[in-house]
Amino acid sequence: MVGFGMALQTEPTTCAAAAAPLLFRRSLIPFSSNVFFQPSQKVNRFKVSAVVKKSPKRLKYSAPRLPKEDGLLYIEVDPEGTDTWKLDSAVELLQSGAVGVIPTDTVYAMVCDMTNHDAIERLRRLKEAEATKPFSILCRSLHDIDTYTTGFPRGNSNGLSDYFRAVKHCVPGPYTFILTASKALPKQCVKYGPAISKYASRKSLGVRIPDDAVCQAVLEKMGAPLISTSVRSPQENQWIIDPVLIADMYGPEGLNFVIDAGIRLANPSTVVDMIQIPPTVIRQGKGPKQPWMADQNDVEETD
């Protein structure tokens, strides 16, 4: 399989502008394999790259296909969400314990039912993720976040800032917020290990509300959040942004479906630790740093 690396970085914008979905239609394909964009100095701390396909083979997946035994369902949809009826088969697979790939407002995400322990373990095997690696959840709304976490810090008479009000201006959008998990979260989402007797508890949880029509349609049809992890190549810090390449790479390994909504930008979400006060950016990505967010280096220097 032939792949090429391509680094992409968008200029910081206002929060509202950053939250707008970046959609790439087939008319933009193929990309030049020799085009490189110089990332900003801040993102150099966290390498952002991508893998794209050299020779397009999209005719192979030109129409939705029903999976054969141990096969792959491939669904091509309008990035603007005008044909979400096509997603019903993928949602049925998720509800039955499948692992699939869906678009977000940043990169593609590998997802599964957050209540299905076997599906979560299969996702780990497909991603070759360490048992200690935490996964995030994709949420439909702030209500989901309030249900499965203890919520965002709110202001009080002791001078604590109301970060909940600030966050509301950034969702939906390209941010992952780290919060304290609530008791409502299924234990398999906050514990890890090969057997129940070896589980170790994890108290924090990453939450996302993507600003992507197709992703939101999947979540609404599912009726619940999904366990999520970004789709990478075997090379560290490289995101696979071409859904055809994702199907070629993970289909033989047991991935159940891929929803193709066009090529994404190789720019992950910005991760903000909301457990720390002030909230701290621990990974700078597509979402611009807001005035109420601290930089991790600044926090470390003051400790």
Automatic annotation (TrEMBL):
GO terms for molecular function: double-stranded RNA binding. It holds the Pfam family Sua5_yciO_yrdC. SUPFAM superfamilies: YrdC/RibB. Residues 84-287 form the YrdC-like domain. It comes from the Eukaryota. Residues 283-303 are annotated as: Disordered. This is Threonylcarbamoyl-AMP synthase. It comes from Mikania micrantha (bitter vine).
